[in-house]
Amino acid sequence: MKNKTNTHIGNNFDQFLEEEGILSEVEIVAAKRVVAWQIAEFMEKEKITKTVMAARMQTSRAVLDRLLDPENTGVTLKTLGKAAAVLGKKINISLAS
To answer: Is residue 93 assigned to a domain?
Structure first.
């Protein structure tokens, strides 16, 4: 019987994702999920409906739905900024090593 060696034993998950060439994509989706969740939580806490939120952002419900979709990473900073302003929050974006 041939002994198979798992090349991923001992590596951390980030190293595995890097080896697979998907680390950056996974990090972006994870960040978007967090942002979408935070906005939804703030809206619920403040009892702001999607219709009211979109109106206050001066945008459509479709744009808000894309913002709240955890899988949709094609959201603009402008849209994020409008949502943050409506909720009395600020956006904090940084590049990290």
So the answer is: no
